[in-house]
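Can't paste images in this forum, so I'm doing it all in text. The chain is below; anyone willing to post the predicted structure tokens underneath?
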Amino acid sequence: MYEQLRPHDPFGRVMQQHFLQLNSTLHALSRYPDKQTQRQRFLDRGWEECVCLDMNHFYFEFLSEEERSRVERLEPFDEYEEWHLKCSHYFILAASKGELKHQPLICPPCESPVPALVPVLFSQLLPVSVVPMEPEGAGLGCTDLSGSGLGCTGLAGFGLGCAALRPGSAVLVSGGAGRHGRGDQTRVLIRDKAVWRCACPRSTEWGGRMFHTVTPVPGQRCVVFGGRTSPLRPATSLLSVSWDPTTPTDPRLSVSELNCTGTAPRPRWRHSATLLTFRGESYLFVFGGSSIEEQALQDWHFLKLEENTWTQVPVGGAVPEPRHSHSACPYAGGLVIAGGLGGQTPLGSTVLLRPAQSGFRWHELKTDPPIIPRYSHTAHVIGDQLVLVGGVWIQADGVPGVAVINLTTGGSREYSIDTAAVPWPLMLHSHSSELLDGGREVLLIGGGGNCFSFGTHLNPQPVTLDLSPALD
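Text version of the structure:
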């Protein structure tokens, strides 16, 4: 039997709404919402054996790595989140009795490449609130001029690139994809006391790229690297976006292309780009990502910002696994990388790049308990704690909330998010986030995706996540 499960999480709610619109209500889903109840459904009716697997486990346990690789090479593909989410909401079940009892139609392997995991959740819930937005056109607000569907007040899109222009009060938002395709307009979210508004500076378009990075660097500017318009069309230009800090209520941006010397990285998306300092000079450190040729990269590159030169800096230690859709945050003179999608399965590793005598060195941090592997999350360092927000996992039920990792001891904690105050299914993958209020609160922008079965599902406007219960 092949049917749906997990109706109550955000993707499950979108799935149910899809079938309701087709006038095809899923009547059994509320009564048998998970694998356990589906299995018991058959055992209670006289079936002697019953095996039930969600389609992620079926895909990884019954198809060889070679077959999975063949299938994944059939055509360009970059919708990993929606693929894994859909597979986690469908199951395949086989029940038997009598002479067939000992000949199960589905026989899972003794050792699974994606063993089921159960997160140890702390009792505190982290509340989410909808951000109060100034009505479009009011005050100094603006109208969305791009026609992209990524309206100013909604900021509904995924694969956005965001950066803080002024920590806690102004956020640059660029690119991404919405209901009507790629967004090529820049927006600035500005905080005015308790209300946020959206400003749309003119003449700051740089093409409809998504899954790019926007990194604040010294000199009142950001560097835009990578991204794509499609899996066959990566962005190749490196941009500098500067702003005038003397006009905080009326942001004025200028965009220019950087002409760099040295050996540039291959074009990529779903990578990380982090500001580092080495011997008193600033560098942009690019790691991992996806490219046309390789699904997951493990190379790294240093851009010397004062000279716009791609250069070499010595890095030792065991090289981290190839990955994309991971997080990277500055920490203790280096950085910390967490999670990501490595080849075909999510990763749970946390890796530190630490300053060394002649450069940097990789060190893996063992977490206890191990965090559930995830990708397409965001992350922030607050003191000595790494906070991971949202993402996608395939080895546990439910959806990722917030994981907090102590970067000195490796201790980890998992928290669920309370979304009762949000009137839509909150999708915390392919989103962006920025810290507010000294790190006690996170502004979450965008998120969601375009599912090939259930259509586009996007967060219509920003929300804030209260981290206080996890940090106290």
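Residues 137-141, 143-151 have pLDDT under 50 and may be disordered. The longest strand covers residues 121-130.
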